[in-house]
Amino acid sequence: MRRARRWMPAMAVLVIAAGCSSDTDGDALADATSSGAASTTNPAPTPWDPCTIPNEAIERAGLNVDTKESGVFGRDQNGFKICGWESRPPSSKYYVRIFVGFETMDFVNDPSYFNRLEPVRVGTRDATQYQQLTADAGLNCGVAFVSGNELIRATIITGAGVGDPPYDPCTELNKVVAALDSELPT
């Protein structure tokens, strides 16, 4: 019994000390993280957002500013910032999307996704025109070029209700991208 009485105060001191220790450590951690101290990790960079193109430029390119959609169904994909618009009424025959991501032209040169690669000049830029493997070349087209460390891709998708478009999709896409050239990163 004497032993128990001797150890009980010592155990109480340890329990109290342990409790204080964890509280003190917790407070110290909270103070260090909430003090606004600089973090050693930098946030990942994000690509330029094509939805920042001014509405006036979108209208000049023949697109409808009221149909702007950020992402695909509201979401960016595979590291690309995405924005799209329909052609201006009354035609509303096609949809143009611009994709911007930290990729190289190797992304478009991948034959498992793209084919019919062809060098073209779009506005002031040397670019590569392409087709997605599953796309109908008579209705859709894509063009891509590198700007700094970003790959900029644009696609045109003809609406399902347009059987035989009165335009060549690649020619129309290149015209739209050339009209937006001054708004795109250099």
Main sheet record: 7 strands, antiparallel
Q: How much beta, percentage-wise?
A: 25-35%
Order of helices and strands: HHEEEEEEEH
Tell me roughly what share of residues is in helical segments.
Answer: 25-40%
Q: What is the CATH class of the largest domain?
A: Alpha Beta
What count of structural domains? Answer: 2
Architecture of the largest domain in CATH?
Answer: 3-Layer(aba) Sandwich
Total number of helices:
3
Low-confidence regions: 1-35
Mean pLDDT: 82
Q: Give the overall silhouette.
A: globular
Strand arrangement, major sheet: 1-2-3-7-6-5-4
Query: Could you give the distance between the termini?
Result: 85 Å
- Supply Rg: 29 Å
Q: How many β-strands, per DSSP?
A: 7
Report on the architecture of this protein.
This protein has 186 residues and is α+β, with helices and mostly antiparallel strands. It has 2 domains: 1-43; 50-183, Protein Transport Mog1p, Chain A (3-Layer(aba) Sandwich), CATH 3.40.1000. It has 3 helices and 7 strands, in the order ααβββββββα. It has helices at residues 2-34, 55-60, 169-180, and strands spanning 69-70, 81-86, 94-101, 114-122, 125-132, 140-147, 150-158. It has a 7-stranded antiparallel β-sheet, covered by helices on one side. Strand 4 (114-122) and strand 5 form a beta hairpin. The longest helix is centred in the N-terminal third of the chain and has 33 residues, at 2-34. It is globular, with a radius of gyration of 29 Å. The termini are far apart.
